[in-house]
Amino acid sequence: MRVELDKISKSFGPVQANRGISLTFEAGRIYGLLGENGAGKSTLMKILSGYQTPDSGRILLDAVPQQFRSPLDALAAGIGMLYQDPLDVPPFTVLENYLLGQPGGLAIPRRTAADQLRQLGQHYGFDVHPHERIEDLSLGERQQLELLRLLSGGAQLLILDEPTTGISAEQKSVLFNSLRDLARKERKTLILVSHKLEEVQDLCDQAIVLRQGDYVGGAKLPCPSRKLVNLMFAELPRRAPRPRPVAGTPQLELRDLVVRTPRLALQPVDLSLHAGEVLGLAGLEGNGQELLLRACAGLLPLAGGELRLAGQRQPRLDYLAARKLGLHYLAAGRLEEGLVSGMTLAEHMALVSQNGLFVDRAASRAQTRRQIKQYQIVARPGSRVEELSGGNQQRVLFGLLPDDAQLILAEHPTRGLDLRSSDWIWQQLDLRRREGAAILFLSADLDELLERSDRIAVFSGGRMSRLLDARQTSLNELGHLIGGGA
Amino acid sequence: MTRPAWLAQLWTLAPVLAALLLTSLLLVAFGASPAEAFSAMWQGAFGSQDRLLTTVAFWIPLLLSALGLLVSFRAGLWNIGIEGQFILGAIGASWVALSLQLPAPLQISLEVLAAMAAGALWAALAGLLKRWGVHEIFGGLALNNLAVILTNFMISGPWQPPEGGSFRGTAPFHADALLPLVGSTRFSLVALALAGLAFGLVLLALRNSRWGLRLKALGRNPRSARLLGVSSRRETLLAMAFCGALAGLGGALRVLSWFDSLRQSISGGIGYLALMVVILAAFRLFWTPLVAFFFASVLSGSIVLQLRTQLHSSLGDILTGVMVLLVLLFGNREVLQTWWSEVRSARRTPGRQS
Hints:
The structure holds two protein chains of two kinds.
Chain A: E1 3-12, E2 15-25, E3 30-34, H1 41-48, E4 56-61, E5 64-66, H2 71-76, E6 79-82, H3 94-100, H4 110-124, H5 139-152, E7 157-161, H6 169-184, E8 189-193, H7 197-203, E9 206-211, E10 214-220, H8 225-232, E11 250-260, E12 265-274, E13 278-282, H9 289-296, E14 304-309, E15 312-313, H10 319-324, E16 327-330, H11 345-353, H12 361-374, H13 390-400, E17 407-411, H14 419-434, E18 438-442, H15 446-452, E19 455-460, E20 463-464, E21 468-469, H16 475-482
Helix pairs in contact in A: 8-16, 11-12, 13-14
Chain B: H1 5-10, H2 13-29, H3 34-46, H4 49-74, H5 82-99, H6 104-131, H7 136-156, H8 189-207, H9 210-220, H10 222-227, H11 232-258, H12 270-280, H13 287-308, H14 314-330, H15 333-348
Helix pairs in contact in B: 2-14, 3-4, 3-13, 4-8, 4-9, 4-11, 4-12, 4-13, 5-6, 5-7, 5-11, 5-12, 6-7, 6-11, 8-9, 9-11, 12-13, 12-14, 13-14
């Protein structure tokens, strides 16, 4: 089946997620869809799989225009999507879960279905036990089942969203072998959405790169990873380097720090961050930099190693205790993690800055008014935070940072902000730095990392690179390390 | 899209009216006269001064429990265990009443304090269970059952009345242990004063205290609250204990003024009723006493209903139950408004795709 996307556009409010994207997917080929966060990959794939409808543009299957109203529609037409979190029902058995997706009447022919399922598994090289419970399976095995469900549903084009996150190396090689077979032997079309360049190089025939909603180019694979990175990240002229800061006392020291989550284990990290220093963490999403940042704030438990704040060992760090030591965390999702919808600016201010039993409303209003002025927030003290724009919400978060913050940990400090707001945020951070705060941040924007950090660490597959001097390194070197190079 | 504020306030009454209508239809279907039934209920609740005071006496423990729930709901907690906390309050007060003989003011103060402590403890237990991964709804339900079992154990064991004894309750408490009542009713001015005090306390906590602000942040977004420095462990326990203390106070008033001893099914479901009150009041402080009073009137009125007409007193339960269901179905203004605006925008832009 030949699948064409014809001038697909989609916007969410002011954000243009896809801008007139036209692509063709041929039968029997494996495509790698690349792009940094917010490039529009998932929107495009959600449109193709019937999960969302485009604002304009058409989807053609073998030159016939299609209208998908739901993922079910799309699957009936031959397009199936494998999500990062499998859409299965954990308490069910493998067989029950499979039957759930099958058409059929009231009487369920269990025995025949079990045989069918086993044969299907054998055919694609998966070891399937119909009577096992889904919740006892590993993520990789659940993925295999989901794949079987889509294939038995008649999928000709399969979209795989980060399929190797959280599965073992062995399962990955099983998965990749069967994906290759699907393309070569059964002429299926495969689209791999991934942040891991090695995998795309390994598996795919062709790369497709999106950037800020646009299709910016493709490449036959394998090709030098540098070429892909250059396509993914717009190159901007470098600005004048800043003077080297005078490093003060160590604020954060990590020795053999280990963090584990079901999805990813972070290899031991050694790091020290001094007062007045800015350290940037680079890497594609899900490669471990988020885990490190959260663990340093006591938001994730440590699996091993040592963490010191201002020289003090913290065997069991908890965020509330860390806050008292002057550590502050700014999360990426401002309304999900940072501000409380339904509460006003003044209420936020009273919450973080006042002591005593009762709220001094007059004082918190006055203080909020001062912060509004100083941080140039477009709002009133009585405005609820959800009424503010993203940039203003970020300004509010900065306004809530106490003056004596010693260590600021920030996820994507300027994500989704316009140039002016971004610049302003960094002016604030620089001010804090000059006052002696240490700053550790992660970003998907390489330009921001190069321009704003003193040193940069790059994460790939849970491993942290050596520390780079931001003045000495280049976009090319970062790209190489992000792609898993040494 | 924005309605005037007064309409938004009055919207609370819509499900009440709808429930009255539905119950009337039910009555007609069974061949009874709605007018007669409702007038009997009115007579029962407000027909004389004594009846009015009885209704008020029933209202007070219900109001106290509902006020407590406003606090735990503010922290985002579903304190279903309030029924058990109410019962523990009754047990706590009975314990002091049966074991001490002090001058009335001191005796009653101790009873009330013991009841509040017992209720708070029972609630804190549900809070601790939550910390260990048991959701407060399930922990609360289990503790409710335990509270009933504990009551039955106490009245059939340690606190069994000396002569013969029955399984129905303890012997009546001595006179100094009971609240002074007005006339021949079960209404006590002390109870009313305590309820007023509790209302003021909750008003202060929710509107003016920093604690109330922390609970609000926690209830609306626990993840943000944590980053803003709110300890969910601490505040969860405190909010539960606060609610439990008020419920416990309600339980104490139940044994010290409504009854004169600890009985089986001492609460009569007042804790669950309080949950309905708070939901119907849409968690608004000033609506809570009004809704609680409405519930108290319906329930105390339906007792007379059974005497006057051939209708069963459970008509009151039906009426309140239907009302809460209607609130849950239609009462959520925000849902209704989004739905309505979606309908309108769908009409404005008919199917873009061919």
